[in-house]
Write a structure and sequence with these properties.
about 0% strand, mainly alpha, Na+/H+ antiporter like fold, globular, about 290 residues
């Protein structure tokens, strides 16, 4: 039952926000200054998620090194070769941002739990990924987009530092138990919807051709398949347990929507945000399918 509720909620939230952004775009352009505060709140909610699944990072250091190698190394580099097969311009930039981004704490942990994975490992990996993002993400993105002109590395680094610092301050400043779990769930859902709505409202999604959607769908499928293949190879090469392997799949493939949208603000090219949202929805749907295997 929990699986069905979470799966439906996550996908419906995103689709409703996308629909609102397409049908009523005017209000979204006036709300763009709220992007950074919304992302700070989502980072704060991620810290709360990791708190509720307390873990000792030191006990998973080997798996963490493996995760970092995949998430911030092998998958982004190989993934961009796949992206370059069919895509260019803003769509290519959108995929590059997703590949360079940290993992998403909340949904990665939940999908891991629903799939009988190693929740404590997912928690430790999420924390590590978030804290490394201000340094690693701009450098990695610069490498992935090295053929596309200058990457605003300093701007991205500063933005990520503000976001993570703000989320950490909220985490420290808000007393434990002051906000109920239900209130946090509702607020997080509202923040995600608002963030997607504001982002989509600035995109000309109604004029996108079916051919674009077909290409983005194909690349999204290939990227997730690449992530699954890499994890499968490591499972047999290193004799990983099922729980370790499924956890590694989720935390490697699921990317942080708030941070990717925040990074995308530094790019003015068309379809950047639209690509990010599409790939995010695709990841969540695939995660729901994997949790039923």
């Amino acid at each position: 039952m929990l699986s069905l509720v979470y799966r439906g909620k996550n996908v419906v939230i995103v689709l409703l926000a996308v629909g609102a952004g397409v049908l009523v775009p005017k209000l979204g352009t006036q709300l763009r200054p709220l992007i950074t505060p919304l992302v700070i709140f989502l980072v704060y909610s991620s810290f709360r998620d990791t708190d509720s699944n307390s873990s000792t990072i030191g006990s998973y250091w080997e798996l963490l090194l493996l995760f970092l190698l995949l998430s911030y190394g092998v998958l982004p580099v190989l993934g961009m070769y796949i992206v370059d097969l069919l895509l260019s311009g803003g769509t290519r930039t959108g995929f590059a941002i997703m590949l360079a981004a940290p993992t998403t704490a909340g949904s990665a942990i939940v999908w891991t739990r629903l799939s009988d994975g190693e929740v404590q490992f997912s928690t430790a990996a999420s924390i590590t990924s978030l804290f490394l993002a201000p340094v690693v993400t701009p450098i990695l993105l610069g490498h992935l987009l090295s053929n596309s002109g200058g990457v605003p590395t300093l701007s991205i680094l500063t933005n990520l530092a503000i976001i993570l610092g703000g989320g950490a301050l909220l985490h420290v400043g808000v007393p434990e138990g002051w906000v109920s779990k239900r209130a946090m769930d509702v607020s997080t859902s509202a923040a995600i919807m608002s963030l997607i709505y504001i982002s989509i409202s600035g995109s000309e999604i109604s004029g996108i051709s079916p051919r674009w959607f077909a290409r983005v769908f194909a690349i999204s499928t290939l990227l997730v398949a690449l992530g699954a293949l890499l994890v499968l190879l490591l499972k047999y090469a290193l004799d990983l347990s099922y729980g370790e392997a499924v956890s590694l799949f989720f935390i490697t493939n699921l990317k942080n929507l708030g941070i990717t949208v925040s990074v995308s603000v530094t790019y003015t090219g068309p379809l950047v945000v639209t690509t990010i949202v599409f790939y995010y929805v695709f990841q969540q749907v695939i995660s729901a399918m994997v949790s039923d295997l």
